[in-house]
Amino acid sequence: MFFILLRRNIKISIITPSLNSEKYIRDCIDSVISQTYKNIEYIVVDGNSSDNTQSIVKTYGKKIATFISENDNGIFDAMNKGIKNATGDIIAILNSDDYYYDNKVIENIVSEFKNNDISGLYGDLIIISEDKKRIIRNWRSKKLNKKDWEKGLHPAHPTFFVKKEVYEKFGVFDEKYRIAADYELMLRFLYIKKIKSKYFKNKAPLVVMRAGGNSNKDIKAIIKSNKEVIESWKDNNLNPPKFLVVGKLYSKIKQFFFFPKKKLW
Q1: Where do runs of H (alpha helix) occur along the chain?
Q2: pLDDT tens-digit profile of 229-239?
Q3: Can you list the residues of the chain whose pLDDT is less than 50?
Q4: Domains of the chain with CATH codes
């Protein structure tokens, strides 16, 4: 497959799940359709929004290859629908509150896949305030090894680009998990199945995320998310590391306090 990608114009499928996302979805869509790399299949999967999300998406016309709007079983059901409909060589998922840092992100990612024998790639992410005026958290990753995972480290899922063949071989999101299905999927692909992957070290992040995601919106969500993280190890016949949750918390604290946050990169 690596040599096939070298010879052809790689298609990348980008999936955006949405639900009542009228406030921010334009930023998300605009960041995708403004990419310098053009062989993009953009798929928006909406959970039958009751606000203006659907009408906003429709204003983009054919710039969005596939638009699905129907009742679903949550965000990971929407992502799975997107994967099922994707025809690209590589799949990315960009939530409706998020956007790509600049218009060369996809061009750079495709170049990495062309020049490296890899099945997956991930990079850095910043979390910003709702008004986009300050950085709240810098999620800087690295090339993760087995011990890193056992210390609670993991990639930022919105920066995770994966070949479609990996989903076909190892499965999609497990919808049993309401919050941490993205963690479980990355654990399965990177830690258990050990797909060939690369950390894309760049001077700028790949994705900008607004604060207030499902896993961190309140104490109850944080507790549930950590429980699901532990369950994901057990469900994959692994013993959860003793200090997994503590390590996960410590890595987040570092991202809040140990990196500069004065300006948007």
Answers
A1: 2-7, 25-33, 53-58, 75-85, 105-115, 146-150, 164-170, 181-186, 219-235, 244-257
A2: 999 999 999 99
A3: 262, 265
A4: 2-257 (3.90.550.10)
